[in-house]
Amino acid sequence: MANIPSVQLNNGVTMPQLGLGVYLVPDNETAATVAAALELGYRLIDTAAAYQNEEGVGQAVRASGIPRDEIFVTTKLWNAHHGYDKTLRAFDESLRKLGLDYVDLYLIHWPLPMKGLAGETWRALERIAKEGRARAIGLSNFTPAQIDQLLAQAEITPAALQIELHPTFNQPDVRKYASQHGITIESWYPLGGQRNKDSLLALPLLADLGKKYGKSPAQIVLRWHTQLGLVVIPKSSNPGRIKENSEIFDFTLAPDEVAAISALDTGVRLGPNPDTASFE
Ligand code: NAD
User: Fold this and answer.
1) Among 2, 37, 133, 273, which residue's Cβ finds the most Cβ atoms within 10 Å?
2) Does ligand 1 come within 6 angstroms of the Cβ of 215?
3) pLDDT tens, 201-212?
4) Are 87 and 77 contacting, i.e. CB atoms less than 8 angstroms apart?
């Protein structure tokens, strides 16, 4: 079974450093996929209201026989539900679908600066945290400027920030900001995402390092994330790959190898821009 290390969030809660992302896993396949991951030793599952598979996640967590406090469940507030009251209702609905009494981490999925509701939405998350219904609260896709704005009125500093982050877009400025503010970064599109993973994983540097360590390019990339101190949540519904992705803690990249992977940065974002994304 995979032996996955943990990181400590700024409120003392510990979180596994590697988990399973379930974006694009159909709800009717989610329970089996999550069950396979839990069986392999995964203890962090990353879902969202928008992925429409919270029910499958909850079903697998509840049926696993693993004590609830040994599994870390993240879900996210969808864009249509910004605003204080709407957030509280959307959170109730997520808990109902999950069939759980609490989540470990609740995130605002996108900042939607054009709506101007992030402040009151965050106040609702603070209430949820104070009620003990989320052990930690955080943000996704917020920029440092957007977080600064939120912090000016916030009572609770976000524990985590989930953002697009992979070798070709590794966001050094945001990593520095997060470390100065005690915010843990989680990488989404850690392998480049469904559309770009083949071109990312074909980069010769990753193949060369894979040969050196007897690992796949995907394992090299995931190890790079964890050596940077990031939490990583690769998605797969293939049990072989779910296992492969967890077998990354038995080797260590040298500092110059970590730096060489970081130097693949092009500054080009593959996903939506947090300043302009307005979809619901
Ligand atoms: P990813 O980088 O995890 O890539 C997934 C793709 O890589 C899939 O096609 C999968 O089949 C493939 N893959 C997985 N393991 C592999 C391996 N070992 N070798 C080769 N290919 C492999 O992209 P993602 O799923 O978009 O992101 C991961 C998770 O991040 C999501 O599932 C979701 O939980 C989260 N996410 C969050 C946001 C956000 O806005 N907060 C956005 C996107 C994703």
Assistant:
1) 37
2) no
3) 999 999 999 999
4) yes
